[in-house]
Amino acid sequence: MRVQSAEFERSFPRVIDCPEDDLPEFAFIGRSNVGKSSLLNLLVGNKKLARVSQTPGCTQLINFFRINRTFRFVDLPGYGFAKVPKGGRAFFQQLVADYMLQRPNLRRVFVLIDSRHEPQQIDIEFVTWLAETGRTFDLVFTKADKLKPAKLEGNIAEFLQAIAPSCPECHCSSSQTGVGRNEILGRIGSLLRE
Question: How, if at all, do strands 137-142 and 169-172 pair?
């Protein structure tokens, strides 16, 4: 699949305010600082579309991007905010839960996992919860260029073992080398054709 156009639409603080039309949506979520904005920019081929920050918890709204004028990428707040007070964390968790449970046109969730680390409890808990909602999801192991192949494969295998019996499709990505871009776009293209 080719990305011919990508534009930021709007940000919303509540799910009830989000667009009501029926464009298919592909949501991206992960722990704070996992590389969500960098992945979105890689997929669309524009380093400035989504704001990239070194500060954890920068995404605090639901951000909508219209792609090829036919579907959307949705950038969700990360979980595990380092710089947000406890009350703020609860708000963002509810915002994410509302989005996951209430959007009828959500086609797939891409959960981003930092490949450099062994399985983190916060990631396992989120993926387990997501599986319980019945939402379909893929895993994207980010920053794949930072590890030797054997270590990368080992961390992925450990994570999959930790979330068994869930068996999602997995992708590796690197915003530095471009690894994973064609594979993920191909996956989205095939989901759009279903």
Answer: parallel
**Rounded to whole angstroms, how far apart are CA atoms 190 and 194?**
7
pLDDT tens-place string over residues 95-147 = 889 999 999 999 999 999 999 999 999 999 999 999 999 999 999 999 999 99
**185-192: long-range contacts, CB 8 A cutoff, minimum separation 24:** 185/1, 185/2, 185/3, 185/43, 186/1, 187/138, 188/1, 188/26, 188/71, 188/108, 189/1, 191/24, 191/26, 191/107, 191/108, 192/1, 192/24, 192/70, 192/71, 192/107
- Asked if 135 contacts 52 with a C-beta cutoff of 8 angstroms, the reply is no
Distance separating alpha carbons of residues 45 and 99, to the nearest angstrom: 26
Token pair belonging to 77:
């707040």
pLDDT at 177 over 90: yes
Amino acid at residue number 162:
A
How far is it, in rounded angstroms, from Cα 105 to Cα 84? 30
Q: What is the pTM of this model?
A: 0.91
C-alpha 75/C-alpha 181 separation (Å) is 17
Average pLDDT for 38-53: 87
pLDDT at residue 57, as a whole number: 46
Confirm or reject CATH 3.40.50.300 for domain 6-193, answering yes or no: yes
Half-sphere exposure at residue 15, Cβ-oriented, CA atoms within 13 angstroms: 18
